Amino acid sequence: MQGAIVEDRGEEARLPCRNIGTGFDPPHGEHPPLTSILSPTGRGGERKKRGVSLMRPITRVQSRTAILADENIDTDRIIPARFLTTTTRDGLGRLCFHDWRYQADGSDNPEFPLNRSQASGCAILVAGRNFGCGSSREHAPWALLDYGIQAVLCSEIADIFRNNALKNGLLAIMVSEAEHRWLLDHPGVELSIDVRGEYIVLPDGGRISFALEPFARHCLLNGIDQLGYLLQHADAITHYEQQADHFQQEQAA
Amino acid sequence: MSAKTLFEKVWNAHVVAAESADTPAVLYVDLHLVHEVTSPQAFSELRQRGLPLRRPDRMLATLDHSTPTLPAGADGVRPYANDQAQAQVSMLESNCREFGVELHGWDSAARGIVHVIGPELGATQPGMTIVCGDSHTSTHGAFGALAFGIGTTEVGHVMATQCLLQRKPRTLAIHVDGKLPAGVGAKDLILHIIGQIGVDGGTGHVIEYRGAAIEALSMEERMTVCNMSIEAGARAGMIAPDETTFAWLKGRPQAPQGEAWDAAVTRWRGLHSDAGASFDREVRIDASRVTPTVTYGTHPGMAIAMDAPVPAARNAQERRALDYMKSEVGKPMQGTRIDVVFVGSCTNSRLSDLREAASVLRGRTVASWVRMLVVPGSEAVRREAEREGLHEVFTAAGAEWRVPGCSMCIAMNGDLAQPGQLVVSTSNRNFEGRQGKGARTVLASPATAAASALAGHIADPREYLVEVAA
Fold it and tell me: Which residue of B has its CA nearest to A228?
C-alpha cells in the first residue's frame, strides 16, 4: 500500500487569511496532479521534486506505519551536518538518516529499520519520544519529505522541528503516551490521518484524536502560505515601527 | 498592573498583532542574525517572489559554519572542505551584496561565530527580540533578550516582514541558589542542569535562569548557560540584565552612546521578573553541589559529575548510546582515554574560555597521543588572545591555533574527528556523528578540556589549578 495525500479544496477559508499569491504560487487548478508529486515512489530521493510551493492543501495522509523507536532522534541523525552545504532544498532524500541508513561501503544497512522490506512505501513514521531535537535545520523536514515521509507521530516532538515540519506540509503530530506506546508496538498498521477532523483512523475503525496548532492546520487544509498571511500585516508592522519607543513604553507600564 | 516575568515584558513589547484561538501572534523581530547555512533558500524564495528585505538595517550577517579554520595559503586560496562549502559562502556574499545586508565576511575585523559577534558588536541588547536560523540563538538571552532559533522558512518570513508568527511559549524558572565551588564553571553548571531536567525538560518553554549563582556569573558565563538552553529543548533562555550586563555592553560599537546610553540603561533596569510574577514551572538547583561535569552518552541530558559512576541504561536508546560511546556502566568518565580535544564553538570560544584553558595548559604539554584544536570564536577574540600571548601558550603545549569559525562543533568545514575517536569538546552537542561519522563526543568545560588534553584522559581541572596556585 502506497501512502497517498488526498487533495481537498473544499473548506472555506474561515480564518482572516487568504491565498493572496505573490507572483510565485500558481493559481488553483494549475498544480500538477498531487499523486504524481507527493506519493512516495520508493526510497532514495528519486521521487519527483516537490518544488518549494507550500500551497498544496493536505487533508489526509494514508499509509502503513514504519517505526524508529529510538528516543531523542536528533536532526544530526536525520541529516548529518556535513550535508548542509547545499543551497537548495531539493534532493535531500538520499541523505536522510545517512549515517544510520548506509554501511561504510555505501550499501544499505540491514539494521536500519526503514531499510526493511516491511517499511517500504510507508509514509507515516512513528518515532520515539522527542523526535527532531537539536538544531533548527529545516533540511531535516525537507529530507524526510523527499525521502517519502509525510507524517511523524510521536508523544513529544521538538519545538523547532515541529514548526519547520508543519510549514512544509510534513504532519508532525503528537499523540498521548499510551497511544504512542500502542503505535510503537504495532508496526505496519494502516492508518488514515484526517487533518480536518484531527483524528487518526486505526485499522479496526478506532480513532486517535490529536490537536494541531489551529493556524498551522488551517494553512495545511487550505494550502495557505504563512508568508502571504504575514504580508497582509504590512500596515500594522509599519505602525508598530513608527512607535519609536515601542518596547520602552510597555516596560515602563 | 499585574506582576510580569522578564519574558512576558519582552514578549508583550513586540506584539504587532495579538494571538487568538485561531491565529498566532505576529511578533516583531529587532535583530535578525544570518549565516551561510540556513539563509540561501530564504534569499532564493524572496527573489522568486520579487519581495524586498523589509529591514536590512536590522540584519547582521557573517560567515562561520562552512568556513575553513586554516588560513588562506600564500596564493590567497582558502582551504575549503569542498566546492559546495565554498559556493555556499560565495552565495551569502552575493546575496548580501544584492539585498544590501551588512556582512562580516572574510575582510571584516569583526567576523566570527554569529553568536559571539552579535554581543561583541553590541548589536545584542537587553529587551530585544533576536532570531537566527540557528538553534543556539538562545545565547543572546544572556542579555535579557528574547532570542531563539528559527527554520529557513521563518528566516524568509523575517526577511520579508521583520515578523514571525508565534504562539506564546510557557515559562520555566530555574533558580540556581548558592555558589559554584572553586574550579567549577558555567559549563559544568549548564551540563548539570540539563542532566537534572533532561534533554526535553524545557520543551515548549522559555527558561529564565535566576538566583544568586546566576547573578554571580560573568557575561561570558551567562552566554554559556543560555547557549545550551536548546539542549534541554527550550528554544530560549533568559537572564535579567544587571550591572554586569551594562558594564559589558557599554562602549561597544552598536550599543547606544551618550545620553541614549543612559536612557537605555534606565529602561533596561525594568527588565526583570516582578516580585510575585508566576512561572508555569519552577526548578531549583543547588550550585554548591555542582562539580566538573561531563557527558557520557549521545545527548546533552546524559551528563554526570566526571567522578560519578556511569548509570545503567534505562531503555534501549540509552543502551545504544552507551554502546556507541563505549561508556562503562559503574565506572566514572574520569580516567577514560581520549584522542582529540576541541576548545571552541558558540558555547565556549570567548576570551574568558581561552584564558581558562590556557591557565591549565601554561607551561605544560598535551599528551603525545592527543590532538588539540583551539578555535577562537571571532576575529576580535583572536586578536585579544594573541595580544595576551594565549596562542603561544596553546602552540607551546602542542595545540593547533586556528582562525575563527564553528569548526569541530558541527564538523561541516572539514575539522572533524575520525570514526571511533573520543573527543573532549567544549561545544554543545554530543549527538552520534556530530563531530564526524563515528566520532564520540564528551562535552566539558574549557578547563576540563585542557586538563584532559594534558593527561590524555578525562581529567579534573582542579588538580591542575591547585598546582598553579601552590
Answer: B157
Q: Average pLDDT of B55-79?
A: 97
Structural domains of chain B, ranges and CATH numbers in brackets:
6-166 (3.30.499.10), 309-469 (3.30.499.10)
Domain A4-11+19-231 fold: Aconitase; domain 4 (3.20.19)
Give residue for cell 537566527: B132
Q: What is Dmax (Cα atoms) for chain B?
A: 67
pLDDT value at position B467? 58
Q: Is the CB of A227 less than 8 angstroms away from the CB of B156? A: yes
Cβ atoms B377, B403 nearer than 8 A? no
Determine, for residues A236 and B26 on separate chains, whether the beta-carbon distance falls below 8 Å.
Answer: yes
Chain A residues near residue B85 by CB distance under 8 angstroms: 85
Lowest-confidence pick of A109-113, B55-59, B199-203, B461-465: B461-465
Q: Which residues of A touch B160 (CB under 8 A)?
A: 227, 230-231
Which 3 state secondary structure label does DSSP give B421?
coil
* Residue B416: φ, ψ to 5°: -155, 165
Q: Do A215 and B88 touch (CB under 8 A)?
A: no
ipTM score: 0.95
**Spatial distance between the Cα atoms of B341 and B76, rounded to a whole number of angstroms:** 29
Residues 6+ apart with CB under 8 A from B4: B12, B273, B274, B277
Task: Please determine, for residue B169, whether its predicted confidence score (pLDDT) is greater than 90.
Answer: yes
Closest chain B residue by Cα to residue A235: B16
Total residue length of chain A: 253
Element (H, E) at B115: helix B114-120
Find the helix or strand (DSSP H, E) in which A4 lies: strand A4-6
Query: Looking at this protein, which amino acid is placed at residue A222?
Result: N
Tell me the C-alpha distance between A173 and A155, whole Å: 8
**pTM of the complete model:** 0.92
What residues of A are in contact with residue B67 (Cβ under 8 Å)? none
Contact B157 A252 (CB under 8 A): no
